[in-house]
TrEMBL record:
Residue ranges occupied by any HTH merR-type domain in the UniProt entry: 10-79
Lineage top rank: taxon: Bacteria
A Pfam cross-reference name: B12-binding
Keywords assigned by UniProt, alphabetized: DNA-binding, Transcription, Transcription regulation
MF-aspect GO terms: cobalamin binding; DNA binding; DNA-binding transcription factor activity; metal ion binding
Domain B12-binding span(s) in chain numbering: 187-311
TM ranges: none
Name under which the protein is recorded: MerR family transcriptional regulator
Length: 311
């Protein structure tokens, strides 16, 4: 049998919408009014778009951004639109203006960040959380968004107050996820915190929210906590595990000492789990003390599941 490729199968309208940044309503309206692209239909009438169709929608957007009217370009082929864009000598300018929006899946959130619009950011994040579900929302939206915000901030392209304002909104949406499903009686307990000196909270919230979605009872202690306090919480709650996020700095003797102390105070009664961008710089002593280290959330989830089945 002939092997079906994505090209022969075609793309549903939702995929085209994500790839082009156009709403599904706009794509359908352009088809109805201007016949910009006329997709194939399945037996049940669902629209299926080819790569060329997607390319044309992107080209038409660029032509519009460069001042063309839709009636001028709707009936042209992709090569003709490309030639027109070149003739207009506007290719570079238009690409600069339109490509990030079409290609960057984070652009919706970043626009709200740059526009100091926390309400819009919150609404977009809520929609994404509902659409994707907790785990994908955290790995596909929250992680990449926070890293992008950090990148922009470090390049001087984002003022600190914008980073603070958006971090507060991200924190709120993770807290909602974390506290949405209160731990059930008898569920295994996970204590989550950051050690003394660690002020970055989002990694800890991500780990807590993920565990809570997976049915753990999460005792969330927040940031900057001495080893003694974390150990006391673990002891009193009979925690199966303690998860810490360590994001900055790496190789700090004070952080190292706190982690070593906590590993000792837990006496092996709760598994110590450490994740975050800086965690691996403490790996030698952590691994010696029997702790588990994670650089990503997927392996963390696998390990939580294993802990549930093999206590
Ligand atoms: C928000 C933010 C802040 C906020 C934090 C507010 C808050 N309530 O959390 C504030 C303003 C306090 C802050 C302060 C600082 N920050 Co800051 N910050 C950030 C930013 C933008 C996001 C941090 C974050 O939440 N990351 C969370 C996740 C998304 O990051 P991640 O480490 O990649 O985590 C992944 C995994 O490691 C894992 N993970 C994380 N934790 C855990 C835990 C467990 C158990 C598991 C299993 C997995 C896991 O999940 C993630 C997905 O895979 C980052 C950018 C970035 N790249 O992270 C900079 C960043 C971390 N900050 C940075 C700096 C320099 C600072 C300051 C020194 C700035 C200053 N001059 O004061 C201080 C230091 C504060 C301190 N003592 O810790 C740098 C660090 C550079 C470096 N590594 O050398 C970064 C990378 C920005 C940059 N690009 O330069 N920051």
């Amino acid at each position: 049998m002939e092997k079906q490729t994505i090209q022969t199968i075609g793309h549903p309208i939702q995929v085209v919408s994500r790839r082009t940044g156009l709403t599904t309503d706009r794509i359908r309206a352009w088809e109805r009014r201007y016949k910009v692209v006329i997709p194939r239909r399945t037996e049940t009438g669902r629209r299926l778009y080819s790569d060329d169709d997607v390319g044309k929608l992107l080209l038409v957007q660029r032509a519009l951004a460069g001042g063309r009217r839709i009636g001028e370009v709707a009936g042209l082929g992709n090569d003709q639109i490309r030639a027109l864009l070149k003739d207009d000598a506007a290719v570079t300018r238009i690409e600069m203006a339109t490509r990030p929006k079409a290609a960057n899946p984070l652009s919706e959130y970043l626009d709200s960040v740059h526009n100091l619009n926390p309400e819009a950011l919150q609404a977009s994040l809520s929609r994404a959380a509902a659409r994707l579900g907790g785990e994908a929302f955290i790995s596909q939206v929250v992680g990449p968004l926070m890293r992008e915000i950090g990148e922009l901030w470090s390049q001087g392209m984002l003022d600190p107050y914008l980073e603070h304002c958006s971090t507060a909104i991200v924190r709120k949406s993770l807290q909602e996820m974390l506290f949405a499903a209160p731990g059930k009686e008898g569920a295994p307990v996970l204590v989550v915190a950051t050690p003394s000196g660690q002020l970055h909270e989002i990694g800890a919230l991500m780990a807590g929210a993920l565990a809570s979605v997976r049915g753990w009872r999460v005792l969330y202690l927040g940031v900057d906590l001495p080893a003694e306090d974390i150990a006391s919480a673990a002891r009193r709650s009979h925690a199966r595990a303690v998860a810490l996020s360590v994001i900055y700095p790496g190789n700090d003797p004070k952080v190292q000492a706190e982690l070593d102390k906590l590993a000792r105070l837990l006496h092996g009664k709760s598994l110590l789990i450490v994740g975050g961008a800086a965690a691996k710089s403490y790996s030698d002593s952590l691994l010696r003390s029997g702790a588990a280290l994670f650089e990503d959330t997927e392996t963390f989830l696998d390990s939580l599941t294993r802990l549930l089945t093999n206590p």
